[in-house]
Write a structure and sequence with these properties.
This protein is mainly beta. It is built from one helix and 26 strands. β21 and β22 form a beta hairpin. The longest helix has 30 residues.
Length: 388
Amino acid sequence: MAVQPATLGQELNLNNQQTINADSPTSSNEVVVKCVDDAGNTLVKDTVLQGEVGKPYTIKPATIANYQYAKLANGSAPINGTFSKGTLTVTLVYTKVPVTQRTVNVKYVDEHGNEIAPATTLTGTVGGSYTAVPANVKNYEYAHLAANSAPEKGSFTANPQTVTFVYTEKPAAQGSVTERFVDEAGKRIAPDKTLTGQVGDLYEARPIEISDYAFSRVAQGSAPAGNTFINGNVIVTFVYKQVPATQGSVTVRYVDENGNELAPNRVLAGQSGSAYTTGPITINGYRYVRLAADSAAASGTFPKDTGLVVSFVYTKPAIPVTPTTPETSTVPSTSSQSATTEVITPSAQRRLPNTNEKHEYGIAAVGLALLSLMGLGSTLLFRKAKRQ
């Protein structure tokens, strides 16, 4: 308990107390000053004033943080009075003052003033201290405070303040992921693939389609198929199991322009997806001209079924006939009549035989050749007779 000697005619300022030992010998009487809240709770230590009976005292309420003096408690001695025999108690009642929060805004910007991270806000009461610290910003490093920034450490004021941290961009660290494709024995069955990205970014590795294999699982001990890039390289290993190869076939046909088969069909067989190549063959009496309109390509890959047909179309070339102009001669005769040789004019065009007429066409060709030889022989005999 603080004890303050009272001076005649002076007021007691509880904010500037000079205390004396309450146990010191004195003939003075006392005034005890209490400071309490609305509920009667003591806010500061009691103060005791000593003085002679009949001398005046005056009490000035103390300033207490976040409280303000409101009134004297019921039954309290007066703030201004005189010492009397015994002890007087002055009870000062205070009410709590609502605390107004003040703010310090903290911003994170690049060298051009662009925000690179969300701003934060510090709150406190006027006079309270604050400390702002630079945040960790991906791909940036803290450089300095902005020229117009409030200090990193300071006190809250009635007006808002802003602390601005300036950052410089740093090269982003790169990571890589190797995608590996193996069979169940660990043998590679396709070339590796590589993914690259900034450290911390997400990656997603995926299995690929491989002929005659089906994806089974991610290998034990492999890096996960989905994760974030790290400094360096990680390997994601996809394991495949072999599946039976699918066989396909290609039918090859040789036809005339009417679609009639000229030679037996050929059937090519092979693993689906593998290459095939075919071509026209030599057929006696026919000449290859083109692929049929609905034909598959002469070269391609085997299908998964038997649905491909390659059709080579042939034509039968016409046999040219050389026209012959017979000589017209006068044969001597004893009669008054003159003899002449009949001129046979061959047809300008012969009809080409159909496929089912090929045997008859061969016989006709032989006959025509014999007739030509006979005509030539007759001409030679006639000339010989004339010379005689």
